[in-house]
Design brief:
The chain is of the alpha+beta class. The chain has 4 helices and 4 strands, in the order αββββααα. Its cofactor is Zn(2+).
Amino acid sequence: MNVINILLNIILVCIFGQLATISHEFGHAIPALVFTKDTVKITLGDNTTKTKEINFSKLCIQIGRFQPFLGFVDSNRSKLTKWQRIFTSAGGPIISLVIGVSLIFISGIINYNLLKKLISFSAYYHILQFICTALPIIYPKWWLGYGGYPSDGYNIMSNIKGI
């Protein structure tokens, strides 16, 4: 029974991690689509191997090898103003925070225990994602595909300082 619980928890973490990553990346992509006429690409998972692409007008979604916690948005940031770059960088963490807080409130009105636990878990995962991306840091080398890259918070601070 314990092995089944462990496997179910791993599956749930992967599902909620993927959904949180998708919503976070859309938080970056939507402002980029609004601010530029160029194509904006969302990459989900590891794109070092064969990928599948889905195109919607100016939005390209590239799906690589399954890594539920890995995602990037690529847009032509050189055509954006300083404040547009800040807003685009902040879009992902803002979406993560808004979804996390919303799910906390939703879980408070749910009476069904299992659903309440699932919604609460998703809420706290989104809040954790907000914290990890909003902190102005360069991710350590061991950080799941993000090692050596700046966080969204770091990008925001760099744009504010004009670096």
